Amino acid sequence: MIFDGHNDLLTRLWLSSAEDPVHDFIHGSLPGHLDLKRCRQVGWTGGLFSIFLPPYAYLQKNYPEKLLDPSSSDFSAQQIIDICCAQLVFAQQLHVRSEGQIQICTSAQQIKTCQQNQQLAIVLHLEGAEVLECDPDVLDVFYEQGLRSIGPLWNRKSLFGDGLNASFPHSPDTGAGLTVQGKALVRKCAEKNMLIDVSHMNERAFWDTLALIDQPIVATHSNAHALCPQARNLTDQQLQGIQESQGMVGVNFDVAFLRRDGQRNTQTSLDIIIDHLDYLIEHLGEDHVGFGSDFDGSLLPDDLSDVSQMPALIERMQQRHFSDQLIEKISSKNWINVLSRILKS
Ligand SMILES: [Zn+2]
Fold first, then answer.
1. Helix (H) / strand (E) containing 126
2. What residue ranges carry the coiled-coil annotation (predicted)?
């Protein structure tokens, strides 16, 4: 069984030009890394599903039909709210239209129940908090609808802090930390027993977050900076901070976060993923490492081109002498444990 720290399916559903992508996900096949059939085949039982505002320039270039006025230079506040609400609605449609096969979970116990019943478990995650800049009440509304995880910052600068937009190679120290509003947001989300994701934080915001909250610190989809000096990856000092909080890191399968040369080259051996797992286990302990695939938002190695290839990775872990018990922890147990310590049941 696999539970996965990060994917961008909801954003892909929103971007899709298919007539009914929700139907295709549940009943047919959907181009991309995930659909229900392939998830079932390999025992991928769910994970954190991101609600994400893609960069404006990216939409202008690749999906102009998604913008009200592609000639303008940025989103309107209403557009940002609409885009995030549309992705939340996709999650709800997946639940409603799957006749119970897909559930939105708000506790570790609900995820375990889904795993027992062979249902797909969605834990809703907000990646970047620009929508809360437009209307702070969205947090409470989304929480009511099941949101239980937030990455307060993404790569761009916002009201809540500087982004993490750096060339390769680069240290994660790319600017100022959390703003006053960013700190208030982190505190508020921690009080609501939400997971606070530090994956897209620069180093100062990371340490600001550690100083603010008592709960386990989680990087849902980041790797080891010592093996791939990408600003999004974690230095040994950051790993120590996560370890002291009894937190968790999910290994990202994107080649640019894995490879020592940072190249976007899909001819990348699965061994590099194992190397990151090994390194993180050495620094965090075997109870604090999992997967954070970034499916549907990443450039994957050729041998792990979608979720159906997960058995190849597990097999490689076995060949590299990971015990069955350790594979179980990395594949699912560690995530369920950390979520059971953060989320209210
Ligand atoms: Zn991300």
1. strand 120-127
2. none
End-to-end CA gap in the chain: 22
Confidence of residue 68 (pLDDT cuts 50, 70, 90): confident
Q: What is the CATH number of the domain that holds 279?
A: 3.20.20.140
Give residue 29's pLDDT.
86
Mean pLDDT taken over the chain: 97
> What percent of the chain clears pLDDT 90, i.e. is strictly above it?
97
Distance of CA 160 to the CA centre of its chain: 19
For 173-214, how does the pLDDT look when each residue is reduced to its tens digit (9 = 90+)? 999 999 999 999 999 999 999 999 999 999 999 999 999 999
3-class secondary-structure state, position 98: coil
Whether omega before 169 lies within 30 degrees of 0, making that bond cis, reads yes
What is the Å distance from ligand 1's center to 221 Cα? 7
- The rounded Å distance from CA 293 to ligand 1 centre is 10
Q: Cα(48)–Cα(299) distance, rounded to whole angstroms? A: 18
Q: Name the nearest CA neighbour of 177 among 138, 198, 204.
A: 204
Q: Report the alpha-carbon distance of residue 262 to residue 188 in Å, rounded.
A: 36
Residue 83 domain boundaries: 2-342
Number of domains in the chain: 1
